[in-house]
Inverse folding.
């Protein structure tokens, strides 16, 4: 049975909604980093590596953000879908507009090349959700640390975007949204979820662009999840994000800082 791993330092955002969706589908997530100080995305990856190195090499591991993810199916379906794929490491994929796409490229695409175009236009790597096998995931994270000089504060999304664009290590993105459906907000003010590609059917959704039913939803960037949760039948009490303004402020400061920060150069 696949292992679900989430890294979270404290209760915030939609953590309760994430846990409730796990319980709805009989999933017991492993929560790493609890009550620890948040250091950075590189540190998060190292913590995940240190955990999975004790797992059987062939065991499937599913890594998610516990603050903005909802499971839509059980693990059997996810395992079945992943086993049909030829890639070794699959990340979620985002469809972005011109403005958000330009911001993404400036912040995360340090490859010097354009992102490949996909038939569904889900072209952008999102590392808030990924799936692999324990042995390969450990190997890839070791490579990021050793060959790509990943530090505790490195952006995993920069490194994995570079790897994906250069077609290294058999890393791919779920542009069909077969396992992951990643979405963003409609605008920066209300943060309402952009649901234009989703058709809701009771407790599942269909991605209109691909015609497939993803196994989980990931609402990135402090997107409000109330409408999503209501359509999926969750209690209103779980749809009020904890520390919402504080989270937006922290992420805004972080992303603005990235704009003015010198972009790292990758040499391997």
């Amino acid at each position: 049975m696949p292992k679900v791993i989430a890294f979270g330092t404290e209760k915030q955002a939609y953590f309760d909604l994430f846990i409730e969706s796990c319980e709805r589908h009989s999933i017991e997530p492993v929560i790493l980093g609890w009550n620890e100080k948040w250091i950075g995305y590189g540190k998060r990856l190292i913590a995940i590596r240190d955990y999975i190195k004790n797992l059987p090499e062939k065991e499937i591991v599913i890594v998610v953000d516990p603050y903005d993810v909802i499971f839509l199916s059980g693990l059997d379906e996810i395992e079945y879908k992943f086993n049909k794929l030829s890639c070794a490491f699959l990340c979620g994929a985002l469809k972005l507009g011109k403005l958000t796409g330009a911001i993404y490229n400036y912040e995360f695409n340090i490859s010097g090349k354009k992102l490949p175009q996909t038939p569904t236009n889900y072209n952008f790597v999102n590392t808030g959700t990924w799936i692999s096998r324990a042995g390969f995931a450990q190997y890839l994270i070791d490579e990021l640390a050793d060959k790509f000089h990943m530090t505790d504060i490195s952006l995993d999304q920069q490194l994995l975007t570079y790897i994906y664009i250069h077609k290294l290590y058999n890393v791919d993105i779920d542009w069909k949204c077969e396992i992951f459906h990643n979405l963003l907000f409609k605008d920066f003010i209300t943060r309402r979820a952009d649901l234009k590609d989703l058709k809701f059917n009771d407790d599942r959704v269909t991605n209109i662009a691909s015609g497939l039913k993803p196994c989980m939803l990931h609402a990135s960037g402090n997107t409000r999840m109330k409408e999503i949760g209501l359509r999926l039948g969750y209690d209103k009490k779980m749809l009020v994000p904890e520390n919402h303004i504080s989270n937006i402020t922290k992420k805004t400061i972080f992303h603005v800082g990235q704009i003015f920060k010198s972009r790292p150069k990758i040499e391997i």
Observations:
- The two ends are 35 Å apart (CA to CA).
- The CA atoms of residues 94 and 124 lie 5 Å apart.
